[in-house]
Design goal:
The complex is a heterodimer of chains A (643) and B (153). Chain A is α/β, with parallel strands linked by helices and 643 residues long. Chain A has 5 domains: 125 residues, Glutaredoxin (3-Layer(aba) Sandwich), CATH 3.40.30; 203 residues, NADH-ubiquinone oxidoreductase 51kDa subunit (Rossmann fold, 3-Layer(aba) Sandwich), CATH 3.40.50; 84 residues, Roll (Ubiquitin-like (UB roll)); 89 residues, Up-down Bundle (de novo design (two linked rop proteins)); 76 residues, 2-Layer Sandwich (Alpha-Beta Plaits). In chain A, strand 11 and strand 12 form a beta hairpin. Chain A is globular. Chain B has 2 domains: 60 residues; 76 residues, Glutaredoxin. Chain B is built from 7 helices and 4 strands. In chain B, strands 2-1-3-4 form a 4-stranded mixed β-sheet, covered by helices on one side. In chain B, strand 3 and strand 4 form a beta hairpin. In chain B, helix 1 packs across helix 3. The longest helix of chain B is centred in the first third of the chain and has 14 residues. Classes of the chains: A alpha/beta (643), B alpha+beta (153). Chains A and B meet through helix 2, strand 11, strand 15, helix 18 and helix 24 of A and helix 2, helix 4, helix 5 and helix 6 of B.
């Protein structure tokens, strides 16, 4: 591939690629993102390829292994083009039917379509499925349309035209002005205005400066950055190159956590291709601008996602934060000006440059513009990635896009912002989602994790979970974070074990305040959010744990017991056989009894007891009834003659 | 270490010679090659790249992806991310520690299994998730864990 030397050559190449592609040629797109791969997407691809070969259709049908379109709950996702028919939960066994029916006979395979759980209506096209219909997919919409390993696919969809526009028609100052005007705010959590950060880095003294993509997506329950980097790596590269041009940087880094092997693979291939085509390297598109990118793998430390820590890690040292009296935009990697933005932030840049800041500010709320990708997970029907305009209500995200709570359970709270965020209760569901509103409710946007919780979730346990996570991940460099988190965790653990005392809630509040005010980096400063927000909205649950020694959601092991109701037990032996602790006594025709001493409270008996019996009960905050005497345990079954 | 092993390690070090800030990347590669970072390797790196051993151990002990003790033949990772947590991963982990008779971070005495926990694998739709040697097992109930682990020895 000869290097592209000008925007005109790029357009010529693009026309060449598009003209060679027949829009009517059938194409089977299979999601091979990490989620679908875990469900066996690789086997689906192999099976479809075999079927294609069997029918001798190799030249007549394209197969595309694409990135993640977001509907992980219904993987493996397959979309047939040009009709855009969307098949869900596809298994390798379905390959034959897909080729013979969907491709050859041009028939729709009914059983693989989306069925609306409430109306029972089927949806044929992606755009008709409520999960997709209620989104605005500017960033991840292309994932299912392109093979992330193919730069031609990206070019066919108009890729790198924003870069060509920036380099040939705009000065760096104009690019910066456009991004500033768009009011784009950092998608990694802080929500800092991107334009301002760029300007600070551009104006900082020094010759060399760096631009960095933060793909150290460490928040548990969040995977939007992975989906972008894995599914559409060139969009991130394009944004980064444009940013480098505006800032005056010639060297960039992509910091990816090593837990994302596929993202590392795809972005490495993308960089190589971009170099070949001349989007990276010297004299990019004949503009005289030079820029190169290196990939740096993170080695598994949450705190290394913090900007100053990440930059220390890029230098090859232990990734710990440092005080930021001087911003990293002025003194970052090797003490040189360094501009770090999140994956999603960079991916927004090409859109802003091609469509203009005015278009971008038309989407969203007063203070938050554009869209945001959330990973909607937990107790929700449609788990997956959703991209919605800023300002949509939480209720719409959870119910319209997410399809509500499974199993007829009641919604309790939604946790946003990862370990630094907070829990938002039902009465706030009509709140608009943007940076400022979430902060007002005691949570934060964070990187975009949205974890839905139902009535079976204990809020004390959730707070304890996050503090446990943070106490593991706190680097220990500053005392308020290290000790503050540890002490809060101690108090919470006591509460969840039934050892809570009067005054513990106030003690937590005091510790939270100091940890927030005195910690060095954002990890410690926001560590108390999960505690504070759960105390604020669910104080009664804390009080039940402390005063009544009761866990209302039946989660905290030390506060619950399992008990078999002798009136309901049918002596079916199921729980008795499955109990891993051997704690259940009984026999055929003999009512089962749990030995409370032996019971490990694993909950297996509760799960396996047939619904129609419902004999196993959970008890909390009250004593377990004494076991019924041995002689009363025999069940005299009615035989048919007696009926 | 055998000469063959030394030359394998040297090859990895060669890739990074003369570059700055490469220690983390180098140790990740070695971890992948040997499944752990033995003392002799730390010495070798220190000699060849003129990096103090204290710095190598500082990095290797800070990051969870690196191990200073040998790992088992099979690596079992249980996802403890938020979505998996609320879908019952603590109970899954309890069951697995019961079956393997080791705690997270430990390796069984016969080196058949190493058990660890990870914070999020990003496949929350499948939670709770356990990964054995890179193969994902999603929506695993605690009662099904034994069935999965039986296939590895």
């Amino acid at each position: 591939m000869p290097k592209i030397n000008s925007p005109a050559e790029l357009e010529k190449l693009r026309k060449g690629i598009v003209s060679k592609r027949d829009p009517k040629k059938p194409c089977i797109a299979v999601c091979t993102g990490t989620g679908c791969l875990a469900l066996g997407a690789d086997k689906v691809v192999v099976a479809i390829k075999e079927e294609i070969k069997k029918h001798g259709l190799e030249d007549k049908v394209d197969i595309k292994e694409t990135g993640c379109p977001g509907f992980c709950e219904r993987g493996t996702v397959v979309v047939i083009y040009p009709e855009e028919i969307c098949y869900l939960k596809v298994q390798p066994e379905d390959a034959g039917e897909i080729v013979s029916q969907a491709i050859l006979a041009k028939k729709v395979i009914d059983r693989l379509l989306y069925v609306d759980p409430t109306t029972n209506e089927k949806a044929v096209r992606e755009s008709e499925i409520p999960f997709y219909k209620n989104q605005m997919r500017l960033l991840i919409g292309n994932n299912i349309k392109l093979d992330p390993k193919s730069i031609d696919d990206y070019l066919a969809l108009g890729g790198y035209s924003a870069l060509a526009k920036a380099l040939s028609q705009m000065t760096p100052e104009q690019v910066l002005a456009e991004v500033t005007k768009s009011n784009l705010r950092g998608r990694g959590g802080g929500g800092f205005p991107t334009g301002r950060k760029w300007a600070e880095c551009r104006n900082a003294p020094g010759e060399a400066r760096y631009v960095i993509v933060n793909a150290d997506e460490g928040d548990p329950g969040a995977f939007m950055d992975r989906a972008l980097l894995e599914g559409n790596p060139h969009s991130v590269l394009e944004g980064l190159i444009i940013g480098a041009y505006a800032i005056g940087s010639h060297e960039g880094y992509i910091y990816v956590r090593q837990e994302y092997p596929l993202a590392i693979e795809n972005v490495t291939i993308a960089i190589k291709k971009a170099e070949e085509y001349g989007f990276l390297g010297e004299n990019i598109l004949g503009s005289g601008f030079d820029f190169t990118i290196k990939v740096h793998r993170g080695a598994g430390a949450f705190v290394s996602g913090e900007s100053s820590a990440l930059m220390t890690a890029i230098e090859g040292r232990v990734g710990e934060p440092r005080p930021k009296y001087i911003h990293t935009a002025v003194k970052g990697v090797r003490d040189r000006p360094s501009c770090l933005n999140n994956v999603e932030t960079w991916a927004n840049v090409p859109l802003i440059i091609s469509k203009g800041a005015d278009w971008f500010t038309g989407i969203g709320t007063g203070g938050s513009k554009g869209t945001k990708i959330f990973s909607l997970v937990g107790k929700v029907n449609n788990t997956g990635l959703v991209e919605v305009p800023m300002g949509i209500t939480l209720r719409d995200v959870i119910y319209k896009v997410g399809g509500g709570i499974p199993g007829g359970k009641k919604f309790k709270a939604v946790q946003t912002g990862g370990p630094s965020g907070g829990c938002i209760p039902e009465e706030k569901l009509d709140m608009k989602v943007d940076f400022d509103e979430l902060a007002k409710a005691g949570s934060m946007m964070g990187s975009g994790g949205m974890i839905v919780m139902d009535e079976d979730i204990c809020m004390v346990d959730v707070a304890r979970y996050f503090l446990n996570f943070l106490s593991d991940e706190s680097c220990g460099k500053c005392v308020p974070c290290r000790e503050g988190i540890r002490q809060m965790l101690k108090v919470l653990t006591n509460i969840s074990k039934g050892k809570g005392r009067e005054g513990d809630i106030e003690l937590l509040e005091e510790l939270a305040e100091i940890t927030r005010d005195a910690s060095l980096c954002a990890l410690g400063r926001t560590a108390a959010n999960p505690v504070m927000s759960t105390i604020h909205y669910f104080r009664d649950e804390y009080e039940a744990h402390i005063k009544e020694k009761k866990c209302p959601a039946y989660v905290c092991k030390e506060l619950i017991s399992y008990y078999i109701d002798p009136d309901k037990c049918q002596a079916c032996m199921i729980c008795l056989r499955q109990c891993p602790a051997g704690a259940i006594a009984g026999d055929k025709n003999q009512i089962h009894v749990i030995d409370q001493e032996k019971c490990t409270k694993c909950g297996t008996c509760f799960e396996v007891c047939p619904l129609r019996f419902g004999a196993v009960k959970r008890i909390s905050g009250e004593p377990v009834p004494p076991p019924i005497p041995e002689e009363a345990r025999v069940i005299a079954r009615k035989s048919k003659e007696n009926e | 270490m055998t000469t063959e092993e030394i030359s394998r390690i040297d090859k990895i070090i060669d890739k990074y010679e003369g570059e700055e800030g490469i220690l983390i990347q180098l140790l990740l590669d070695i971890q992948q090659e040997l499944n752990w970072i033995p003392k002799e390797v730390a010495e070798r790196i220190s000699q060849r790249l003129n990096i103090p051993q204290s710095q190598i151990y500082r990095v290797a002990s800070f990051y969870t992806a690196m191990s200073l003790t040998p790992r088992g033949r099979h690596l079992v990772s249980v996802c403890m991310g938020t979505a998996c947590h609320i879908r019952g991963s603590p109970r899954l982990l309890d069951r697995i520690t019961d079956i393997l008779k080791i705690q997270p971070g430990e390796t069984s005495p016969d080196r058949s299994f190493t058990l660890n926990t990870v914070n999020c694998l990003g496949c929350c739709a499948l939670g709770p998730v356990m990964v054995v040697d890179g193969k994902y097992h999603g929506k695993i109930a605690p009662t099904e864990a034994e069935e999965v682990l039986k296939n590895y020895d």
